[in-house]
Structures are given as C-alpha cells and as structure tokens.
Write a structure and sequence with these properties.
Number of helices: 18
Helix content: 40-55%
Number of strands: 4
Strand content: under 5%
Distance between the termini: 73 Å
Structural class: mainly alpha
Shape: globular
Largest sheet: 2 strands, antiparallel
Strand order of the largest sheet: 1-2
Amino acid sequence: MHFVWRLKHVWTVLLATVVVAACPATPTVPPEETLILRGERLFFNETFAGNGRTCGTCHRAEDNFALSPGFIATLPSDDALFVAEFNPNLAENFENPRLIRELALILENQDGFDDLANDFNMRGIPHTLALGNSINSATGPQTGWSGDGSPGDGSLRSFAVGAVIQHFPKTLNRVADVDFRLPTDDELDALEAFQLSLGRQEDLLLPLPLKGTVAARGQEVFMDRTLGKCNACHFNAGANGDPELFGPTAGNLNFNTGVEDLPDQPADLTGEAVPPDDGLGSPGSGEFNTPPVVEAADTGPFFHNNSVETIEGAVAFYNGDAFNNSPAGQLLAGATGSGINLDATQVVAVAAFLRVINALENIRASDELLDRAFPVFRIDRARQTSLIKRAGFEIEDSVEVLAGAGLHAAAVALLRKAHALANESLKYSGDRRRQLVDDARAQLTNAQIRMVEL
C-alpha cells in the first residue's frame, strides 16, 4: 500500500506539472494600465451622485473627446447634456439650451457663483487629447480655455473637482454631499491617468516630409517667421511657444488675440445673453491659452467661443483686424516687423497642412487603438470592441478631414477600406477578428505612405 501511495503521489505531481505547463498563468494587467482603465470607467460612467452627467457627457469619445453641434444633433432628448431642459431645479442659470444645441456652448461661472444671472461665460468644449504636451507652462498647469479652468492648485486633478461642482449638481445650491459628491483622491489619480493617456504622447518635429504639394507649401508658410508666423506660438504645431522666442521653459502661453472683438459672432447673432468673456483671471486679462493645432481640423468649431466653424476660417482670422489690432497681434508685429497678411491661396495652403497633420494623427491614433485591442494580458472582449470602435471614429475623422478639402484622394480611398474592415471585424471574434483588424492596419499604413515619406 505504501508503494501504491507513492506511485499515485508521483503521478499527481507529474500531472500537476503538465497542467501548469499547458496552462500558463494569465499575465496580469500592468499597474499603470489598471489605473488608466479605472479612470476610463470613471470618466464615462461616474455621475458623482449628481444630475446624471459624467465627464464623457461633454467630452465624447465619438467626437474627439469634445462636442460639436453636429454630434449634439444626434443625441436623444433625455441625454444628460440637456439636463437643464428636464430638471426644474436647473431650468435657469445653469445652461442655455438654445446655445448648447445650436453652437455647442456650455455655461461656465469662471468668476464664481455669487451672481449666476449675470456673471457667466459661454464657452465651447475643448478636447482632452495630448494634454501632457499642452498644459504645462513656466507658471504651472494651464487648463481650460483661459488657463485657469482648475480650482485650487490649477492641476489637471483639480480640474475634475471644478467640473463636478460646475456641471454635475442636482441644484444650483451646489452643496457637496447633497447636490453631488466630490471625487476621492484615488479617483482623481485615475481620472488624471486616463486623460493623460489620450492622444499624442509627444509633439511633432517639423518640418515633416509631406508628399502633398499644397500641404507642403502650407507647412512652409506655417513655419516662416516672416509670413505665416504660426510656429512662433504653435511650436511644432503644438500648444507651446517657440523656445527660441519665448525661452526654453515657456511652455504653454496665454495671449489676448482679439477673438472677443470679432464682429457678427454666431452667439451674439442669436440674441441670447452672452456677456463678454474676459479670459484669464478675475477680473480677466482678456487672455486665453494656446491650444495645439495638430488636432484642430477635426475638433471645430474654433476658439473659446466657437465663433468660427472651419479650419480655413480659423487660419483666416489671423489676417483680420481683430487679431492684428489685438495685444498679441501688436506683439507679433513688433517682434517681426509686420502683422500677418496671407492671401487666400496661402490661407488654404496652411489649412491643408493642418488637415494633413490632423489626418496623420488620426491614422497614428487609430493604429495604436487597434494594436491595443489585442494586449499581451487577457483580452476583455467588451474593451476590445470599445477600442476598435474608437479606432473607427479616428479613421472616419481622417476621411472627413482630407475629403473636406479634396486632399489625398488615393489615401482617402484606402482609409475608407480600413474603416470598412474595422467595422467588419466587430461582427466576429477570435482569429477572424484579428485578421480583419490586421488588414485594416495594413490599409492605414498604405494611406500614410501616400501622405508622408516614412
């Protein structure tokens, strides 16, 4: 019996060894990825015991983590974005439903909540892409349109606190633990990690070896310090000042560019109450911080008040009196000897450059999302589907950005194929899904080759 027991024991050990070898332990999710995943869930699902809104209510993944009138028009009437229309406690002085629906403008009480009826601004919703490359400055983080969108220490973590107080309350009393709950420190860490994971993790290095004739000329105008002069404030098409002009630690800068002085602004034409927006500080300096322009072409309308609809119009703004007579325009003229004066073809060329680099970023982002859909650790099918869908949004944007100006027709055809393949993959699982995603990524590379030397 002793021999039989030992024989059984040996076979048990051998069998266990074989089973372990055949079924290796599932790799664990890296801690940084776990934090990002938690932040993503909070961003899209957590209402913080408020009025039903989440961070994703205004920063839609389907709309470049921003919000445009075209997308708003697709939403059902009971979407939390429209809470002021069906919550009587928020019917006045919380939002302007007409300006939300027509112009994607959200009410902000930048200077506090003491006079809700008169002290407010109407602002567009900035995207949350490439934040790690765009909010740092020599004086600290620059969040929101005017660089002071975050209470307390001005950090991205604190920005979430301000957002909950401003946009999530059940009533305008805005009492913590009654009208909402504030995020915990752990939740703020996760939200910050998720937001910093979105979009580019580094700036471009201009000039790029572009193949499109018009876009290549637009890049030259963009970088020319005597012509477009764009690179001075949007260094490498990002959000930071040129270190040769503003110093190596300048980072993101605030300027009064005269946008508030534009005539016939859409919000003003509605006849709705739209007080002048004085920008940074209280009282304000009239300054607003510089956004990155890599993502500009598919994140319109433009400027803090959504006053210009197209990327061509946004470029043309810098030709006009509003900019050239502004403090920023005068500063630029003093430094370079003249203001900005581009002809129509040059405006179109700069816009073409911005469209092309936006589409290239769409391609990069969509390829990355498709790659992340098949991680080395255990696949979460629901998350995989979400990543493929997000990649589809990026590909769709690249098509719209290029086709909207007749750019790179051959690349557009390939991008449409990539989009179709990504969508087709959602019908399948396993190896078939993987093959379709790989085919989509190959089309993305083919499209990229048509646009830029690799």
